[in-house]
Amino acid sequence: xxxxxxxxxxxxxxxxxxxxxxxxxxxxxxxxxxxxxxxxxxxxxxxxxxxxxxxxxxxxxxxxxxxxxxxxxxxxxxxxxxxxxxxxxxxxxxxxxxxxxxxxxxxxxxxxx
Length: 113
Hints:
Helix content is about 80%, strand content about 0%. The protein contains five helices and no strands. α3 (about 30-40) runs antiparallel to α4 (about 55-80) and α3 packs across α5 (about 80-110).
């Protein structure tokens, strides 16, 4: 990757650094992590691509997954810890969401009683 960096013009280097800074900024926020994970889910990264006889559906899902892999590759290019930590932190965020939802239902049940 360093060889590619050496061949960049100053404007291209500045653009790459600005994009990396934007990714770091988004990734520093819980809402940014949630948004990145949502984008990966929309890219069918966590789904099976094969759709049986529906070849067009399989190809469509593979195209979505290609976009998701590009996003993961960009995360890895900026910081190889981004994607693995995203997976861990999303698990924590989802656990907190479930707990909040459970507590909300309990509170609603108490109010109704």
